[in-house]
Amino acid sequence: MESETQAETSSMQLGDTNTNNSNVVSRVKKLLFRRMLVGVNDGRFFLGAFYCMDKQGNIILQDAIEYRSTRRSSPSPMEQRCLGLILIPFSCRTSCHVDCSVEEQLSLLSLQKRDN
To answer: What is the pTM of this model?
Structure first.
């Protein structure tokens, strides 16, 4: 009897995990090929089309452009260079912004509130 209860509990937990994973996957799919601006901890920014994300949170951008400050002073001009396909490790990422309409931003916020 106890083993049946444990099996039911573990299958329910797996079902919850699968539901959560499918919600995350569907939200990430909505971001595919959108313009994304990613900041990294050394002050650079990368702008490109969101291509994929792995389980560790690493992001791959397609047709990426790197923007970096030429001087350490605050109002310095930005230098840019084209990179192509790049991987940005989760450990280096400080910010991430997606180019979308106001309505889409509001719907993403409402999804985040429901998940919490």
So the answer is: 0.69
